[in-house]
Amino acid sequence: MTKFPKNFLWGGATAANQLEGGYAEDGKGLSIADALPGGPERFEIVNQPDFDWTIDEQKYRYPNHEGIDHYHRYKEDIKLFAEMGFKCYRFSIAWSRVFPNGDEEQPNEAGLVFYDHLIDECLKYGIQPVLTISHYEMPLNLVKEYGGWKNRKLIAFYEKYASVVLNRYAKKVKYWMTFNEINSALHFPVMGQGLVKSNGADKMQNIYQAWHNQFVAGAKAVKIAHQVRPDIMIGCMLLYATTYAYDSNPVNQLAALKENQAFNQFCGDVQVRGTYPAYTESVMNRYGFSFKDLDVTDADLQVLKENPVDYIGFSYYMSTAINITDKKLETANGNLVGGVKNPFLKASDWGWQIDPTGLRIALNELYNRYQKPVFVVENGLGAVDKPDENNFVQDDYRIDYLRKHIDAISGAIDDGVQVMGYTPWGCIDLVSASTGQMSKRYGFIYVDLDDEGNGTLNRYKKASFDWYKEVIASNGEQL
């Protein structure tokens, strides 16, 4: 097995809206995540034509409001991460803590102070923060008043927000990302773009317009970052699902190529290369519109060209298989993208197909396409953990999943891929983004909280805690 580089960034990853809680404390405004009901039917509710972001606590639970109370317990949590030996910790800033409505002239100082303290707590233990500027939690006001990211006005709001946090934290924080899983909007634009059926999600032109506005906003953040700190590393972040044709039928091979372009490649091509790809018109024509139908200026294209990202961050949980020749095949669940069931793969408790080799393929595809460093910033197994009478979880299934994926990263490094680091998702149990559940657990640390909000919130180390500690201590040699 190839040895990992000495400066490899081992760590873990979370998102503000899924663990902080304190949703209305210290001046924080409402975010879109605060308006998402909990439970496995979360996406079905949001996809209803009459969903209008109203928070109805008589009808639904809103687990993101409490998260795991990281807002008050961050010192305890960071200490546990340090005990595991984290070299870095990827987390996000809650946009609505800094700009409660998103369109204010001045930021909320109390929100900024919280992240001052969180960053300093990481640095106290030698943990490098990796900050996501926006991770599925845009201020709710920007959706209600402006219609989400399809409105160009959001470019300026994001630019101001990015400028504030970059100028505040860049001296202490080298690694950044602009938007979380930006390409997820192709299949589910609510979390990344603030679009639901009632405000335009049913028209693909709106999704592509929203993407364009995000591309421009992200490029402006890249420009600010490089002005603030020349050696800063600011990347994009993609949801990557390695995509196979189900069989050797050329029809399915072509369908897989088209899906790859539309989902895995399009957002990366614009942000990394700084220009729209040759297949842009082909993709848009499939949905009944043209690139010229979008509101795109020459200044937009110039800022994209001049400010490509420095690296590619991406999430990888599963692969997907494409078959358009046999409509009878059983479909598979996945991280906002499914496909058909792959007969060669097993699946998680939630039906996501487990494919470590797919991660090695993804790393090769991304690095050879862009020739820029890649960073696996999400990967993990959502599972039902059953603690014993001492609240200990023997999660050998998680260890097995992570071991095989780390081995795949090693294989990619052997293939010549420049991999920056590895931050498994939900290094501490948190609220699932896709289902709003606590029972879908990813962490090395068990949090005593159930789907109904019952529990002590106490933290307990799982078996995977000590295993990952040894992985980091050995720089990936002891798996």
Automatic annotation (TrEMBL):
Establish whether keyword Hydrolase is in the entry.
yes
Q: Write down the PANTHER family for this protein, in alphabetical order.
A: 6-PHOSPHO-BETA-GLUCOSIDASE ASCB-RELATED (PTHR10353:SF122), GLYCOSYL HYDROLASE (PTHR10353)
Q: Which InterPro entries match?
A: GH (IPR017853), GH_1_N_CS (IPR033132), Glyco_hydro_1 (IPR001360), Glyco_hydro_1_AS (IPR018120)
The biological processes this protein is annotated with in GO are: carbohydrate catabolic process
**Pfam families recorded:** Glyco_hydro_1
Report whether Electron transport shows up as a keyword of the record. Answer: no
Supply the gene name. Answer: pbg9
Keywords annotated in UniProt: Glycosidase, Hydrolase
Cite a GO CC annotation: cytosol
- In its UniProt entry, the species of origin is given as Companilactobacillus crustorum
A GO term, aspect molecular function: beta-glucosidase activity
Q: What is this protein called?
A: 6-phospho-beta-glucosidase
